[in-house]
Amino acid sequence: MLTSRLTQPTIIDVVPPVKMVLIDMEGVNYIDLEGCDMLNEITKDMREVGVEIHLARVKHDVMELLEKDGVDENIGRNHLHKKVFEAVQLFTQKD
């Protein structure tokens, strides 16, 4: 049975609504231009529906590539966290 993406629930259909998404980047050792473009696109799309994207534990080499492509500015420097715990604390403080 085929299902359409249009009939599946989306992030804005969730109750309570999603406000922030945290991506743990610890397992990412390299990101190419296509990956940077995808992060920029995801951030833009989520921002349009009121969802913040946050990254945690981004490795130095990966961060250099994110900075080179402007992803860090698009996501927001204050949405980059050294530890998952720090991001979770921020999430709970905003509720």
Protein architecture, described:
The protein is of the alpha/beta class and 95 residues long. It has a single domain, classed as STAS domain (Transcription Regulator spoIIAA), CATH 3.30.750.24. Helix content is 43%, strand content 13%. The protein has 4 helices and 3 strands. Strand 1, helix 1 and strand 2 (52-56) form a beta-alpha-beta unit. The longest helix is centred in the middle third of the chain and has 16 residues, at 33-48. It is globular. The chain starts with 19 loop residues before the first strand and ends with a helix. The relative contact order is 0.19.
Q: What fold name stands as the CATH topology?
A: Transcription Regulator spoIIAA
Low-confidence stretches: none
Instruction: Please state the average pLDDT score.
Output: 87
Provide the number of structural domains: 1
The helix fraction, in percent, is 40-55%
Summarize the helix and strand pattern as letters: EHEHHEH
Q: Which architecture does the CATH hierarchy give at level 2?
A: 2-Layer Sandwich
What is the name of the CATH class?
A: Alpha Beta
CA radius of gyration is 15 Å
Number of helices: 4
Count of strand segments: 3
Strand order of the largest sheet: 1-2-3
How does the overall form come out from the CA principal axes? globular
The CATH superfamily name is STAS domain
Structural class: alpha/beta
How much strand content do the residues show? 5-15%
What does the main sheet amount to?
3 strands, parallel
Q: What separation lies between the terminal Cα atoms?
A: 40 Å
